[in-house]
Write a structure and sequence with these properties.
The complex is a heterodimer of chains A (about 550) and B (about 300). Chain A is α+β, with helices and mostly antiparallel strands and about 550 residues long. Chain A has helices at about 1-15, 40-50, 60-65, 105-115, 210-215, 225-230, 235-250, 260-285, 290-310, 330-355, 360-365, 375-380, 385, 395-400, 420-445, 495-500, 500-505, 510-520, 525-530, 545-555, and strands at about 20-25, 30-35, 50-60, 65-75, 80-90, 95, 120, 170-175, 190-195, 195-205, 320, 325, 460-470, 470-480, 490, 510. A 5-stranded mixed sheet of chain A has the order 1-2-5-4-3. In chain A, strands 8-9-10-16 form a 4-stranded antiparallel sheet. A 3-stranded antiparallel sheet of chain A has the order 13-14-15. In chain A, a hairpin with a 2-residue loop joins strand 1 (about 20-25) and strand 2. The longest helix of chain A is centred in the middle third of the chain and has 29 residues, at about 260-285. The termini of chain A are far apart. Chain B is an all-alpha fold and about 300 residues long. Chain B has 11 helices and no strands. Chain B starts with a helix and ends with a helix. The chains are: A alpha+beta (about 550), B mainly alpha (about 300). The interface between A and B is medium-sized, with 30 and 29 residues.
Chain lengths: ~550, ~300
């Protein structure tokens, strides 16, 4: 009883502070504690029990409990337990003690809570706005239930500008973004550079926040959300849809049929294959090694085709529904997939052999973008980034979901803490993914792929789920609600945590190493900002003002 | 001394050769790169179309000082074309009698200076980073070719291009140590002279967005691109003249074809190196040049002492 063990050790230390406990399964723990003690408990859990910080969630629960709820999620990787430490805050004055000084990784999440819900973190070390645009009026918090999803603030201040940090003495500013050929998505790193050396940086992101979470808890239904979740990210969409569905299933104690679990596992690994191959290509391109870029993409293409054969789409699989999946893998597809994997393994072995000994690549990546163990712990870094620093965290093994407990695979680690190690981790993980898919295809039982769910899902239940995305852990928090839709859905993409490690990783490095250091976390800004990439092609020559663009954007919606 | 009509005519022939065939070399480079990368690649003549298209586009003034920007674009192409007149092609060095190799060294440096001017004219942070990189690279790279030419001058006892640029580093047919060393050194530096991967740090699209040329578009960009292509052609011709001048028949058309074959081999070499390497960082680049520079100095000492 791992969850009980965790509970007991917290209980022993903080007797009488815990208000309510819920242990719905052996691997989940929900604790309601006194708000005054939240920081102490988080310190104990994070430092003494050595749990990994996952995310903090804020929620407007005034309609039900007349309070705001704040949840800090932690993962006990070695005990296979996900825990949520929650507090109820009075509706009139939602203030909670800031935990960023004991858990530095919580900084963004706390700022996000203040922006979107107006939950004040008392003592926040960097209380700048994170998500809301500069001109958004103070005191309007879009995720509160009394703000409609399509609310457009009449007193939006177009002229208000962002207040940048002061430039350190002796440094010049090199603006990296909002648009840069290696970023592909808007994000702004303001580098403070001395000569060719980066001395610090200021990050400004969330330029394309689209309020997906708000849509989910006010407009969509349970089975519509996976389609939207999938469009959070253009690369690891299936991860988000599976994570969401698992959180809902976990909240409502629905067990999908085994075949569905295997199919989810297979599609998640197919997605990892294409994502890692894509990353290898993009990282090579950043380093100017276009031959490996082109070869990776050539090798990747059959994966896209087989995904299209299975699901009808190269990328947006449309796979999940509550209680199962929508696409089956026939015997014919199984054979074809096996053929694709055999080919991939052969070709990738050649690439691996070539890359392994490439001195030129190593010259550019060894000792670059260092993330040591302390940074990984404090900033909550995950995925290949953590594994390249010799920290074997992997949700597939630590917090098993779908069919991962029924297959055999290795968690790849390297100990260089640098970009080169991250290259090796990702290149080697491709072989593990191939192994997993092969086992799944063999072991897949012959059961239905969907449950027939007729009843309404019970409201007010909490579900949390973590899935190992190609970039690290993707974590979703769901509270079920009425009208066939969740009351709150919080998405934490891996880049949300990994990006927070970037300033420390690029400090005192050369500008030339900035792009590959950033590239080495495989950043996904659309995941972090939670938006959908829209490609607008326009042949006409016209310069739009911000106002005109907004008007056009809103016209599209109407 | 008065310029003879023949010298002017041959000079123009050299310029026409360089301008006419440089895009073809670029096309071959792109096609072979595509083959290495399992791509189909653009048609062989694509660089001609590219230049033609760019030249026909609107000429936009931009950057901090548009006049200097325009000047830099003209300068970059003009210098490499002048160099073409000083380099022997098909057995003739058009301006051989009217100039010296010091002028050649100056012109080669000037083509680097045009990049600096372009970057300064743009005035953006990225172009300035590119300028500082270009400057660092120039300081360590340009002396290499100068040393090779000086060794040739030491061996021949003259500064006339038609005599120095005729395999003179080897000292009249024999194979002295200094000449062999310089051959290898310049072969290893050729990639850098023509500004291709892995030595294109001052442009580095994925780091500093083409650096100095970031503000260029339309016809001015065409001039820069053209200069870059001609540079590849001219440097290869220069390398041939200095180090592998053999196989001259004395028949002009045949000699030109032999030269083109040699250039083609060098272009293929440049292509393969570019396609199999990741871009070096500026400190790694400088260290590499510095190593070659040290060796070149040793070669110079050998040459002066008659080895």
């Amino acid at each position: 009883m791992a969850a009980r063990d965790v509970l007991n050790s917290i209980k022993k230390r903080f007797d009488g502070v815990i208000q309510r406990v819920d242990v719905p399964a052996d691997n989940r723990l929900y604790l309601y504690v006194q708000p005054e003690m939240i920081k102490e408990i988080c310190r104990y859990v994070f430092r003494d029990l050595d749990a990994r910080y996952v995310i903090s969630i804020g929620m407007d629960d005034r309609q039900h409990s007349d309070s705001f709820i704040v949840a800090h999620d932690f993962s006990f990787d070695r005990l296979n337990v996900l825990a949520s430490i929650m507090v109820n805050l009075p509706a009139s004055r939602p203030r909670v003690e800031c935990i960023s000084d004991v858990v530095p990784a919580a900084n963004w999440a706390e700022r996000e809570m203040r922006d979107l819900l107006g939950i004040e973190s008392v003592g926040c070390p960097n209380p700048k706005r994170l998500i809301l645009p500069d001109g958004w009026p103070e005191g309007v918090h879009p995720l509160r239930k009394d703000v409609p999803w399509n609310y457009v603030p009449p007193d939006y201040d177009e002229t208000k500008e962002y207040a940048f940090d002061a430039v350190p003495e002796g440094c010049v500013v090199v603006p990296f973004g909002p648009f840069h050929p290696t970023l592909d998505e808007p994000a702004h790193f303001r580098l403070f550079v001395e000569g060719e050396t980066v001395r610090g940086c200021e990050y400004r992101g969330f330029m394309v926040h689209r309020g997906i979470e708000k849509l989910a808890d006010s407009v969509l239904t349970y089975n519509e959300i996976p389609m939207l979740a999938e469009r959070i990210c253009g690369i690891c969409g299936c991860v988000h849809s599976v994570t969401y569905i698992q959180a809902v299933e976990q909240a409502t104690a629905i067990q999908p049929p085994p075949r569905a679990e295997f199919i989810r596992t297979i599609m998640l690994e197919i997605e990892r294959l294409h994502s890692h191959l894509l990353w290898t290509g993009l990282a090579s391109h950043i380093l100017g090694f276009d031959t490996l870029f082109m070869q990776s993409f050539r090798i990747r293409e059959p994966i896209m085709w087989i995904a299209e054969k299975i699901t009808g789409n190269r990328k947006t699989y449309g796979l999940c529904v509550v209680g199962g999946v929508r696409w089956d893998i026939s015997a014919e597809l199984k054979r074809e997939l096996q053929g694709v994997l055999d080919n991939l393994e052969k070709e990738w072995t050649q690439v691996f052999q070539a890359v392994k000994g490439d001195k030129n690549l190593q010259a550019r990546t060894r000792g670059v973008g260092i993330a040591d163990r302390n940074l990984v712990k404090d900033a909550g870094l995950i995925g290949p980034l953590a594994r390249a620093s010799n920290i074997p965290t992997d949700c597939r093994r630590d917090l098993p979901y779908a069919a991962y407990d029924r297959v055999d695979f290795d968690v790849i680690v390297e100990d260089g803490c640098d970009v080169w190690s991250r290259v090796l981790v990702r290149v080697r993980e491709i072989f593990e993914s191939i192994r997993i898919i092969r086992q799944c295809l063999e072991k897949m039982p012959d059961t239905p792929i969907q449950l027939n769910i007729k009843d309404d899902l019970p409201p007010g239940r909490i579900g949390i789920s973590s899935v190992e995305a190609p970039r690290g852990e993707s974590h979703h928090f769901v509270v079920t609600g009425d009208e066939n839709r969740p009351r709150r859905w919080r998405v934490r993409a891996p880049t949300y945590q990994n990006l927070q490690g970037i300033p420390a990783m690029i400090k005192d490095q050369q500008i030339a190493d900035m792009t590959i250091s950033l590239g080495s976390i495989d950043p996904c800004f659309s995941c972090t900002d939670r938006m959908e990439i829209v490609d607008i092609r326009s042949g006409s020559q016209q310069v739009y003002t911000q106002e005109e663009l907004l008007r056009l954007a809103r016209q599209r919606n109407d | 001394m008065q310029l003879s009509i023949a010298a002017v005519g041959l000079g123009i022939v050299n310029v026409v050769l360089a301008m006419g065939l440089a895009p073809l070399c670029e096309g071959i480079l792109r096609k072979v790169t595509a083959m290495v990368q399992s791509r189909q690649g653009p048609p062989l003549l694509q660089p001609y179309f590219d230049l033609f298209k760019l030249l026909g586009k609107e000429d936009i003034e931009s950057g901090q000082s548009p006049v200097m920007q325009r000047f830099a674009a003209y300068l970059s192409l003009a210098t490499v074309l002048t160099v073409a007149m000083l380099v022997p092609m098909g057995g003739h060095t058009p301006l051989g009698k009217y100039s010296d190799v010091i002028l050649l060294i100056y012109l080669l440096t000037l083509s680097g200076v045009s990049t600096l001017l372009a970057g300064l004219a743009a005035g953006s942070t990225y172009s300035l980073v590119g300028v500082s990189r270009e400057m660092m690279a120039m300081l360590t790279l340009e002396p290499l070719l100068a040393i090779a030419i000086v060794i040739g001058a030491v061996h021949t006892g003259t500064l006339r291009p038609d005599q120095v640029l005729a395999g003179s580093v080897y000292h009249a047919g024999s194979f002295p140590l200094a000449g062999m060393m310089m051959f290898l050194i310049i072969l290893f530096a050729l990639q850098a002279f023509v500004g291709r991967m892995p030595f294109d740090t001052s442009e580095a699209e994925t780091e500093i967005m083409e650096g100095p040329v970031m503000e260029y578009s339309g016809p001015k960009l065409a001039l820069f691109k053209y200069a870059r292509m001609v540079k590849l052609f001219v440097y290869c011709a220069l390398f041939v003249a200095l180090f592998v001048p053999w196989g001259q028949t004395g028949l002009y058309p045949v000699d030109i074809i032999i030269l083109l074959v040699k250039i083609l081999v060098l272009v293929l070499l440049v292509t393969l190196v570019a396609a199999t390497h990741a871009r070096y960082r500026i400190d790694q680049v400088i260290r590499y040049y510095a190593g070659l520079f040290g060796l070149a100095l040793v070669a110079l000492v050998f040459a002066v002492s008659g080895w």
